[in-house]
Write a structure and sequence with these properties.
heterodimer; A: 348 residues; alpha/beta; Rossmann fold; eight-stranded mixed beta sheet; four-stranded antiparallel beta sheet; 11 helices; globular; B: 336 residues; 31% helix
């Protein structure tokens, strides 16, 4: 497979190469009222100033609870949703400035895998039609060559070529997710947004899909933005992890660093809330009070201050910037002490 | 020793569909004492929810039907009780909470109306007394400003709050047995932690027995005293919770435990269980897990494996424990 050779070679390059840069991304969904819903009365601030970058061959895990804006961020990066403001650079190109035709060409390089393998596949189309669709739209393959490519893709994701003529309802959840992955791979993308790809699957199947995604990454040199709420899965698959809360990244660091030394109080609470499959594992649990506030009127200052056990007056007034507190480790909290010559960074 | 609070013997629940009949629960037995928590673990289609519905007498008929076995609760066989008696038990001595509180709450009635209904029905009190009791219950489950919340509709509440309301409804008549079917699965982790904490507190305070149905082994490890693992309608392993995690003896349990990415787990690849769950209409002969099992031998396909004792209170349905012999029911030496 000649197409796979080039990215595979790129993955072995030592110098990390930036493939995606997201700066100050904002998405506000208007809330309208009045006759014909023409009057804007407010907005849902789903994504509220998100910045990160991604190196080639890397996996950035994006975690957060419902309403944190993680899925919206994924869609904004691919411009499946138009951002309110901000910038997205993919491989040196300004994604948000591209016109229709150029954007379509770029979409071949940036793909998405969805959470629900039942909802993401057209029940009236065979696997062949589903997987071939992107190839036809982009005018890449025809006739026998098209069939051969579909068979190749199916085998790549662990399905058999005879599955091509079947319909989605004939497959289990895990197999459907494989079909979705085959479709995403059809155009040889370099970057894939994985939006909760294993959340709807049973644990024994989850592990199969996670392994498949890792194998494909290695083989094809893919870069992933891996969106999930399961911190165990994210820890397993990610190189770096970003934690979102109410539309903002509150902490981002290398995987090992983030899990070993979480600094933001929200990250700590999130990590401590996960039930551990080890009876009698005595752990100190930070149980957060209350629930996530509405993104329509997020709290002033630090969005987390209403639930934070350490909040002081400054937190209510001033929005903490996401700043580097140790090499490669950023946190958005007034109370985190940056690393000094004597000691490492400290959380509240 | 006194009789357990709940004793399920050889329960078999079948469903009739266009494609034929299958047993969603097939020969399942377990016991539960007062104040004890059992976790029932399994993947989709393992029969864990149908087990709970069978106990509650809520299996939709048709297409479902309890085809055999016995469910004894406080000394009475529930399968022989007239529906009128079952109705008094449900929401009274035993109650159930579900995964998605939105579908269990009626959207056109206020939370208060739905709470009063159960209290008035089961305790025979007037509306004013029911209201006082409802305020007390909402307060108990950690809902702030309970009196105002009573007049709200379910859609005005968040998922976590609705689950608290469901728990309040379940507690209304001080049940001795609570069945919780994936009560935290639809919730975010920080809210899940709150709800699990609440359930634990209430369970201890009221000495309730709880059947916790979940696919999350973490929830089981933190909440249950003992565990039953189900696969394709059958119980494949039962054990005290510490014992199960320390010495899982059925290859399916072992596989499940290995395939979860732990927070403290390091390693490049996850161990998986190969293949997928067989269709209930095309179950293999003998052990239902054999096709996916790394230890399977021809003997596994000969007959359904019985429950085999590993140590007292710990049983697994795997003939590997007897050296692949069907005629032994007690393991000589536990297999790691």
């Amino acid at each position: 497979m000649s197409a796979a050779a080039a990215p595979a070679a790129a993955a072995t390059v030592k110098e990390p190469r930036e493939i995606l840069r997201v700066e100050n991304l904002v998405k506000h969904f208007p809330i309208t009222a009045g006759m014909f819903l023409s009057r804007e009365v407010g907005s849902v601030r789903a994504v509220d100033g998100v910045s990160f970058e991604l190196n080639e061959g890397e996996t950035l895990g994006l975690v957060g609870e419902s309403g944190s804006g993680k899925s919206t961020t994924g869609r904004l990066v691919l411009r499946l949703l138009e951002p309110t403001s901000g910038s997205v650079q993919f491989d040196g190109q300004d994604v948000l400035a591209l016109e229709e035709a150029k954007l379509r060409a770029l979409r071949g390089k940036m793909q998405i895998i969805f959470q629900d393998p039942y909802g993401a596949l057209n029940p009236r189309k065979t696997v062949l039609e589903t997987v071939a669709e992107p190839l036809l739209i982009h005018g890449r393959r025809w006739g026998p060559e098209l069939h051969a490519r579909v068979r190749e893709l199916l085998e790549l994701v662990g399905l058999a070529s005879y599955h091509a003529d079947r319909y989605p309802h004939e497959f289990s959840g895990g197999q459907r997710q494989r079909i979705g992955i085959a479709r995403a791979l059809a155009l040889n993308p370099r970057f894939i947004v994985c939006d909760e790809p294993v959340s709807a699957l049973d644990v024994s199947i989850q592990a199969q899909i996670v392994n498949l995604l890792q194998d494909l990454q290695e083989e094809l040199g893919l870069t992933y933005l891996f969106i999930a709420h399961d911190l165990g899965v994210v820890k397993h698959i990610s190189t770096r992890v970003a934690v979102m809360y109410l539309g903002r990244i509150v902490e981002i660091a290398d995987k090992a660093e983030l899990y070993a030394r979480p600094l933001h109080p929200y990250t700590r609470a999130l990590l401590s809330a996960i039930p551990v499959p080890r009876p009698g594992a005595g752990r100190e649990r930070v149980i957060l009070q209350g629930e996530v506030p509405s993104p329509i009127n997020p709290p002033s200052g630090c969005h987390f201050h209403t639930r934070c056990p350490f909040a002081v007056a400054e937190c209510r007034a001033v929005d903490p910037p996401l700043r580097e507190v140790a090499p490669g480790h950023k946190a958005a909290c007034h109370l985190v002490q940056p690393q000094t010559a004597q000691e490492g960074p400290r959380g509240p | 020793m006194s009789e357990p609070l709940l004793s399920v013997r050889n329960l078999k629940t079948v469903f009739k569909t266009e494609d034929g009949q299958f047993a969603a629960v097939d020969d399942v037995s377990f016991e539960l004492n007062e104040g004890e928590v059992i976790g029932i673990v399994g993947e989709s289609g393992s029969g864990k929810s149908v087990t709970a519905l069978s106990i509650m007498g809520l299996v939709p008929n048709p297409p479902g039907r309890i085809a055999g076995g016995e469910i004894r609760f406080e000394g009475r066989n529930l399968l022989e009780l007239p529906e009128r008696e079952m109705r008094r038990l449900r929401g009274g001595r035993m109650a159930m909470i579900f995964q998605e509180p939105m579908t269990s709450l009626n959207p056109v009635f206020t939370v208060g109306d739905q709470l009063f209904e159960g209290i008035i029905e089961h305790e025979g009190v007037g509306k004013r007394a029911a209201r006082d009791r409802a305020v007390e219950l909402l307060d108990k489950v950690g809902i702030a400003a309970p009196a105002e919340r009573l007049d709200q509709y379910p859609h005005q509440m968040s998922g976590g709050m609705r689950q608290r309301v469901m728990i309040a409804m379940a507690l209304a008549c001080n049940p001795k047995l609570l069945l919780a079917d994936e009560p935290t699965t639809a919730l975010d982790v920080t809210i899940q932690a709150q709800i699990l904490d609440l359930l634990r507190e209430l369970q201890e305070e009221f000495r309730m027995a709880v059947i916790m149905i979940t696919h999350n082994l973490g929830v089981v490890a933190e909440f249950a005293h003992k565990v039953m693992v189900m696969y394709c309608g059958r119980a494949v392993e039962t054990a005290p919770v510490g014992e199960l995690f320390e010495r899982p003896s059925h290859p399916y349990t072992q596989g499940l435990l290995r395939s979860i990415p732990h927070l403290d787990h390091e390693g490049a690849r996850l161990r998986t269980i190969k293949g997928t769950v067989p269709s209930p209409f095309a179950l293999p002969p003998g052990c239902r897990f054999a096709a996916r099992c790394e230890h399977a031998r021809p003997a596994c396909a000969e007959a359904e494996p019985p429950m085999i004792g590993v140590v007292p209170d710990h049983e697994a349905a795997c003939i590997r424990l007897t050296g692949y012999r069907h005629d032994l029911t007690r393991a000589t030496e536990p297999v790691a």
